[in-house]
Amino acid sequence: MVNNISEEDFRKAVAQVKHPAIDCTLVDLGIVKDITVKGDKVAVTIAFPVPNIPIRDMIINNIKEPIIKLGAECQIKETIMTSKEREAFLDKEQKNWKGI
Fold first, then answer.
1. Which residues does 87 contact at the CB level (< 8 Å), separation at least 6?
2. Would you kindly state where each structural domain of the chain is located, as residue ranges?
3. Sheet strand arrangement including 41-48
4. 24-39 burial by CB neighbour count: b if 16+ within 10 A, else e?
5. Helices 7-15 and 56-69, interaxial angle, to 10°?
6. Is residue 1 predicted with pLDDT exceeding 60?
7. pTM for the full predicted model
8. CATH code, residues 7-95
């Protein structure tokens, strides 16, 4: 914990982060997979639908921002979605697309 900030506080902060082009949170889209807090370090595992997405850095910075504001160091671990996860992501993307 960081200054009496719980793991749940970090989860809630990250849960508010929306995708820049899709009207959904990154949690709802399945991009944020896991959050682990150890001392003043928060590790967030994220899964992208495909490798090398153009807005990768924007998404990572948007995840890091609320964690850093709460006073923790943030580490991002990246992976690629499974085909089933990607299918669910693409369905939500199609239904909620707003553009950048």
1. none
2. 7-95
3. 32-38, 41-48, 73-80
4. bebbbbbbbbebebee
5. 140
6. no
7. 0.92
8. 3.30.300.130
